[in-house]
Amino acid sequence: METEEERESRLQQNRDKESLSRATETIQKLTQTLDAKRNRMAQSKRIDLKLAAFNYNKDDDYRSHKDVVIGAMNKVCSHYGALNFAKESPGMCCSNGKVVVSPLMKPPEPLLSYISKRTPTSKLFFQNIRKYNSCFQMTSIGSTNIVNVLCLPPYDSTKRNSSFVKCRELLH
How confident is the model at residue 162 (pLDDT cuts 50, 70, 90)? Predict the structure, then answer.
C-alpha cells in the first residue's frame, strides 16, 4: 500500500509535470487540443444513446458523450468518506447515511504482507493479481440445493440458485 507521504510525493510530481507541460505548450498545440475537445463534445451531443447498443457506430466517440462520462472518482461521501464519481448522485453510496457500513477488519497474515507493497513478494503479488483472480474466480460458489441432472434449463428458476447447470457445465 502507498503511504501518505508517497502519495503526496507522487501527486506533487504529477502536478509539477503537468505544470511544466502547460508552460512549454505552444499556442498552436493548445488550440489543436481545444479544437479536438470541442469536436468531441459537439459529436457526442449528436449521438442518440437510445438503443445505441443495437445501432453501434464505430465512428462515434461514445466515451466523450456527456451522459456517459461520469468524471473522476474524486468526490468524497460526507457520511463515510467513500470515494464517488464526480457526476454520481449524492448519497448514492450509503443512501444518505441510512446504510451503516462497519469498518473493514485488518486482513490476516499472509494476506496483509501480500497487500503491503513493501516486499519483493508483495510487489510480485500485485504484478500477477489478475492471474490469481482468474484462477480463483469460481472458488466461492455456494449452493444450498444440489440437483444432479444432465440438462437443467436455465429458465427454470425453481431449481437453481445463482449458479446453474447446463448440459453438464457449471455456469455462474
Answer: very low
